[in-house]
Amino acid sequence: MYRDLLLALSGHAGSVFVRDSGGEFRISEDTPCLAPQEAALLNRILKLAGHHYSITNFTSAYRNIIKIRRAKLKESVPPNAGLYTAALSFDLDRGMKQYSDVLIELDKLVRQNPNMPLSLLQFHLDRFQYLFPTLSSIINEIKNNLSMKGCKILGMLHEQSACGIPFVKDLLAELLQSCHSVFYQQLSAWVLHGKVEDPFGEFFIAPSGNEEGRDEEEGGLLANYTINWDMVPGYFSKAIINTILFVGSSVHVFSGRKYSSNPLAKEDEDHFVTLIQGLQRRTKFCPIEFERVVGVMRERVAMQLYNLLMKEGKLMDILRLFKEFFLLGRGELFLTFIDVAEPLIQNLGKKNSESDVNRLFLKSYHTLGFSSTNTVEKFRLQFEKREGSTDRWSDLKLTYDVQWPLHILFTTDVMDDYNRIFVFLLKLRRCQLALQAAWSTSSRSEDRFDHRLLNLRSNAAYLIDNLQYYLHVDVLETNFTELTNKLNATQDFEQIRKAHRFFLGEILAWSFVSNELNSATRLIDTVISLGFQTAKMFEEDPDEIQITKLESNYNFLVAHMLKMLESSASRQHNSFMNQLLLRIDYNGFFTQVRAQKLEKKR
């Protein structure tokens, strides 16, 4: 009977011990003369035979998956098959060798003492009574749970290895280290070459699935790849996963260099290889050491990205260029352009085209004596119909041909933000010029204009001039200086990106362009529209009713605007709002007028 039992423990059924359809072994019903205690002990030992059968079937099915894929054989692939299950299978085979060695020793003992007690056999196999159920649960989870594959297997093995039985814990640690070897190979391809080598979809970083070049323009550095959070092992923090994504995405950007076939510098590449090899040599995974290694990689890559943007991309020059064009820093250029382009843009689509507008823009640039043609040719004016636009000027859009590697910073969303600021500043400048032109008309005209209309133009011009000065000096210049100081004080790409986003956010907020200040945006827009209406009246012959209505609207808007500024300044304690309030009502005139009106109402 012992020989039959040892054969069953090796996975081979016989006449005494049979295997059912589920792979479990049991005592044959034809076996005579077994005491209940002996049968119970045999059934306990036979559970090992069922586990062994399940484990060996798993290893034989999953071990050859790589050969099947490479040979492109038309064989059925088991569920969740891949590199991690193959590595697990190879290490399980090595673990099962200990079990086979015990069976060989038992066979020798049986030969020497055919009448040895069954309890002695149970004693030699006892440690496997703890190991095999754990291994079977791991195998069943992989086979039955379709999402249990790849890096997710690392998390399951890590949880199972938190065990108090040394023999079980040591073998699970070996299995975990074997699967970590696969992980380190995938990590190496990602951080050294910016590529995801993942034929079975097991890595937690995957291509985003969209067109690569277009993706980077729209989403920036992290556009081409995404994190599959379902694959992330539980013992990896969210921060470290995002850092790994950042490192590989940065290396992927470096591969865009035309003059070099290696994404990383030789020194950095050698250092990264040494770090990963150090992790592979460790017998036990150490989260602290892993985070340290990833942190070192991040520092090196961030430094290289900084040099890429600052030296090759000439970021500081581009930011100054954006300030001059998108933020209307070259006031004389847009003053000339508005003057010559006004009639053409109003008739756009009838007699003129977008190309005519761009030719005028280029002509305005050269009229002022600027010689750098390459600079202005990268900018192009386009017309894009916007919701709620009142004229063709509101549909104007300024585009810039962003070159590698600046596309990782100036994404589509960022360029849209610059355009929102550009459209608003251009509208404000046109309103200012229209009011100045109205003053010029009244000065040259022989006809006498209503004194209330003249006062209204003067007050509107005062408001628009101060708003213009506030935007360009208090908001744009202050924030741009702060941005340049931050960029000069760091050598980290992430700090550059954060500083630039903060710069744009501050301008959008305190230029009344951000949607977060929706009521303020509408109010300022109405004030500018009123300025255009006032200027237009100098071209017409308004009656007293029209002037009275316009004057009433102006007084209401000014009062409402001052109230909004006072409320925002006191609530947010913001220096920008206080500065605008000081510029408009520096001597308390408007506050005094508003107080007098309130007193009259009482």
Describe this structure as you would to a colleague.
This protein has 23 helices and 6 strands. With 602 residues, the chain is mainly alpha-helical. α4 (83-112) packs antiparallel against α8 (166-193) and α8 runs antiparallel to α11 (266-281). It starts with a helix and ends with a helix.
Keywords:
two-stranded antiparallel sheet; about 600 residues; mainly alpha; single chain
Class by alpha and beta content = mainly alpha
Shape: elongated
For the largest beta-sheet, the strand count, sense and barrel status come to: 2 strands, antiparallel
What is the distance, rounded to the nearest whole angstrom, between the alpha carbons of the first and last residues? 112 Å
- What is the mean pLDDT? 80
Strand order of the largest sheet: 1-2
Beta-sheet strand percentage? under 5%
Q: Uncertain spans, ≥5 residues at pLDDT below 50?
A: 213-219
- Count of helix runs: 23
Question: How large, in whole angstroms, is the Cα Rg?
Answer: 38 Å
Percent of residues in helical segments? 55-70%
- Compressed to H and E, one letter per element, the order equals HEEHHHHHHHEHEHHHHHHHEEHHHHHHH
